[in-house]
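[job 4471] stage=fold_predict status=RUNNING
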Amino acid sequence: MHDSASALVRRLRGRTLLEAVKRACTGIGLLFLLVTLTPLTRWWAAAMAGSFANPPTDGEVLVILGGSALGDGTIGGSSYWRAVYGVRIWRTGHYRHVLVCGGNSDGVAVSAAIRDYLVSQGVPADTILTEEQSLTTRENALFARPILAQFPGKKVLLTSDYHVYRAQRAFSRAGIQTTAFAFPDVYKLSLSWIGRWVGFLELCSETGKIAYYKARAWI
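[job 4471] inference complete, writing structure tokens
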């Protein structure tokens, strides 16, 4: 009798596990279809950015936030596109200074690598300032504050579409008022089905960071 009861329990457990696996597979399949076949990632990126309006054409300081970096100090994908759009805005606008924010715990500060790219594209070296200690968005704002305090004028904050919501609010919390410009980073990735998954994971990560920053009252 005891053996029969034990066998029944094992069968029930096996059936429950099988049902859980089936539900998990179904959920993964539905998520795959949702991300791949719908404009979810595009809508999400646009909601995070607020808008993709033309960047302000003038200001005292253009603030560029560094993103990813490789181990040898080379700028990563997000940093590269922020640098590219920084050059574009500089060429079409009238800014007195550029401040690039971002350090690197393993080597060359990402802000220094971005600065070198800006100079290679014609931005005058003597107009570029770097903040090379920060490792987070909150630190970007805190460490940029004493630098920006020297320039009483409009500050334009440039960063990726998925990042601008948290970044502008972190700067505001630090007492720095900015006009934000979000360029289409994840939004562009969402235009191809392969890129949608990269963008989707980036948006999931950023949403988690926003929740954490709100819980800590950093934004």
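[job 4471] summary: The longest strand covers residues 58-65.
[job 4471] exit 0
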